[in-house]
Amino acid sequence: MTTIPPAAPAIAFLGTGRMGSPMAANLARGGFGVRVWNRTISRAEALTTDGAVVASSPAQAVRGATIVITMLADGAATEQAATGPDGLLAAGPGTIWVQMAAVGAEWTARLASIADARGIVFVDAPVSGSEGPARDGELVILASGPEHVRHMLTPVFGVLGRATAWLGPAGHGTRAKLVLNNWLADLTEATAETLSFARRLDLDPAEIVDLLQSTPLGSPYAVQKARSMLAGDFSPAFALKHALKDAELAAQAAQASCPVPSRPEVLEGSDLRCLKSDGEHRCRDLPVSPRHIVPPGASIHDHQRRSGG
Q: Can you tell me the distance from the alpha carbon of 160 to that of 255, in angstroms, rounded to the nearest whole number?
């Protein structure tokens, strides 16, 4: 159980979307004074029932705050919230900026530089987990940044997640997030391919999943997703545009350091399935559904041409 200090720091929370809203709500219910801002203000107003105060601008949100948390859509949106008119840079020197959105390595370095120039302490802390864990306070925080502020963030991260991994200097949290996203995409791709491959060999995919679960080969996540795929359960869990953004960020980081051929193939050659709800495309938790098994050494495009795909 997380113990909230008697004099809990005031928190400004910027970005109350599908992930940010439950995170801000947990902080407000957990005893922190929380002021929230969102580009579409109406999406933040529901948080008043949890005790949060809605601000009309980032500058108003950060006034008097010790900690500023950003959970916006991407790096560009985060930079705009920081440097635009009435941006979060109105926070004074010494304010702790905790950047929790997945924005990629380049944007993280850029935002850290912006913070440093204004004397703001930058902590890079993206999360592992989707809307359900965010709502339940079960995220894993991939934190990185200066050691001298970690004790102040311990109770904050304790409300938001079940575990916090401190990974070194700012930027390492994002790097870990990219690796985990790559692993997640690989697992989902391999799971879809395995089910398709089993069917092509006239095997019952459900029996293969049972077999995998009984061995060390069966990742609990992959087994869970395989059973959902077989049941036709593609309930929305994550915005498709954000899933694509995360995959592209992992691909960019990989190509900048070493070739990882699977990610471009996933992005370019897969059948991305989505549905439209409330005007937003959302991933059906089956981000890839391979039409073919690509032979080793062949590009997916060559294979599709040969097979008529």
A: 32
- Residue 172, Cα to own-chain centre: how many angstroms? 15
For 268: left if phi > 0, alpha if psi spans -120 to 50, otherwise beta; the answer is alpha
Query: Per-residue pLDDT for 238 more than 80?
Result: no
Q: What is the DSSP string of 135-152?
A: HHT-EEEEEBS-GGGHHH
DSSP calls for 178-232? HHHHHHHHHHHHHHHHHHHHHHHTT--HHHHHHHHHTSTT--HHHHHHHHHHHTT
Instruction: Supply the pTM of this predicted model.
Output: 0.81
Q: What does DSSP assign to residue 286?
A: -
Residues 6+ apart with CB under 8 A from 279: none
How confident is the model over 159-172, as pLDDT tens digits? Answer: 999 999 999 999 99
241 in active site: no
CA distance 253 to 145: 20
Kindly report, residue by residue over 100-119, the tens digit of the pLDDT. 999 999 999 999 999 999 99
Which residues, at least 6 apart from 248, have a Cβ–Cβ distance to it below 8 Å?
Answer: 267
Residue among 177, 225, 241, 276 flagged as catalytic: 177
pLDDT, tens digit, 9 for 90 and up, residues 7-18: 789 999 999 999
Mean pLDDT of 175-187: 91
Categorize the per-residue pLDDT at 250 as very low, low, confident or very high, splitting at 50, 70 and 90.
confident
3-state secondary structure of 289: coil
